[in-house]
Write a structure and sequence with these properties.
The protein is an all-beta fold and 54 residues long. The chain has one domain. The chain contains no helices and seven strands. A five-stranded antiparallel beta sheet has the order 6-5-4-1-7, with no helix packed on it. It has a two-stranded antiparallel ribbon with strand order 2-3. A hairpin with a 2-residue loop joins strand 4 and strand 5. The protein starts with a strand and ends with a strand.
């Protein structure tokens, strides 16, 4: 699975503020925050996310 980080602070679909640099995994065109406490999603945008190697 591909992992990404967001370049800027964003507000998720669930109205959660996510700081820049947070770790996400990509599932189709949907980004899912890597966080065991809550389910947070955001649409993929190549201008807001960059791929990282874990």
């Amino acid at each position: 699975m591909e992992h990404y980080r967001n370049e800027i602070d964003i507000i998720s679909y669930e109205s959660v503020h996510v700081d820049a640099g947070s770790l996400w995994k990509k599932k189709g065109d949907l980004m899912i925050l890597v966080d065991g406490d809550q389910y947070v999603t955001f649409p993929f945008d190549e201008n807001k996310f960059y791929k990282v190697t874990i």
